[in-house]
Amino acid sequence: MQKILIVEDEKAISGVLHSILSDELSNYEFIIAEDGLEGYKQIEKEDFALVISDIKMPKLSGTELLKQSLVLKPETTFIMISGHADIDSAVSCLKDGAYDFISKPIDINRLITSVKNALAKETLKKENKNLQNENKTLKKKVNKKYQMIGESPALKKIQDMIDKVAVSDARVLITGPNGAGKELVAHAIHNQSERGKGPMIEVNCAAIPSELIESELFGHVKGSFTGAIKDKQGKFEQASDGTIFLDEIGDMSLIAQAKVLRALQESKVSPVGSDKEIKVDVRVLAATNKNMQKEIEAGRFREDLYHRLSVIEIYVPPLDERKEDIKLLVDHFSGMIADEHGTAMKKFDEDAIEALKALSWTGNIRELRNVVERLIILGGNSVSKEDVANFVRK
């Protein structure tokens, strides 16, 4: 049962408040404190749906009780009452965080209305908080394919960065070697952001021929080039209200880079063969395995685009720099592979894990996943050190 605290040094008044309010609010338990200090001790011990407090009291005044309690428990709702009411006192209490201020002699109907409204607001606040927590939890629930697994300092640093940048719309450049997990970082940022309910469109810039990248990103109209048999919506437009992930951005042609820069500057795109400009609301995440400073110096990447993309830069280290994560990764991949094959999860012996840690992982997490699948298929009832020696070529 939720509780209401009445802090009042005059027993006659606290008795009347308790009698009237308990009749109106039978589903609440009432606690009475005879001075501000006792009231504060009660608030220290437990949470109250509402605190009704006098202002003029011995040991600790109502105004000090309000201030100190809101430092301790900022969500506490206060209604202040006083026989020495004036505008300054009322304004001061409301500025300090009180829900309402009622002067003595107390208008009972006014008090009951204020108390009920305060409790309704408190209930709504809790419901909203629960919904926000549920929403946050849902956003952090990522498809197993995109889970970030590990407890190494390097991974914790990345996760802290993700938590900070996800809430903004800042562009992020994710760097690191192939197979290290840059795509996972991009998905985590998207899923934890306000755009998580919108689309996440991925573009592998290295896999699309340079002559088609502009059409892929910005779309085209029918007849704009040979093979354009109908209008096509581009990836930027598809990602509107969501996120576009430009993977391997370092492999994009200079012509396409210029178009992307314009799209970022103006939040507009023009399909190939069209004079029409389309407004897009999209967050841009990009990734590369290249040293961008060297690419800029060599004239292969525009410096102005680099600065547009790298408002925040997150480096994903190779697996060889976080080998303490290998056991957790092996367990994770074993579970995934068991689900895919419809079989029981296969155990990896401790000496097998140590043997895997001793190896060099130039292909990073992607290579480890393939090795785990190979060992599950070819190994014994449980994967041993000997299985690693027999089936992993290094």
Note the main sheet. Answer: 5 strands, parallel
Termini separation: 64 Å
Structural class: alpha/beta
Strand proportion: 5-15%
Number of domains: 3
Detailed description of the structure:
The protein is α/β, with parallel strands linked by helices. It has three domains: 3-135, Response regulator (Rossmann fold), CATH 3.40.50; 150-317, P-loop containing nucleotide triphosphate hydrolases (Rossmann fold); 320-391, Helicase, Ruva Protein, domain 3 (Orthogonal Bundle), CATH 1.10.8. The protein is 47% helix and 15% strand. It has helices spanning 11-24, 36-45, 62-72, 87-95, 108-140, 153-166, 182-192, 210-218, 235-238, 254-266, 292-297, 303-309, 326-341, 350-357, 364-378, 385-391, and strands at 3-7, 29-33, 50-54, 78-82, 100-103, 172-175, 200-204, 219-220, 232-233, 242-247, 268-269, 278-279, 282-288, 312-315. It has a five-stranded parallel beta sheet, with helices on both faces. A five-stranded parallel beta sheet has the order 7-10-13-6-14. It has a two-stranded antiparallel sheet with strand order 8-9. The N and C termini lie far apart (64 Å).
Task: Quickly list its features.
about 400 residues; alpha/beta; Rossmann fold; Helicase, Ruva Protein, domain 3; 3 domains; 5-stranded parallel sheet; about 15% strand
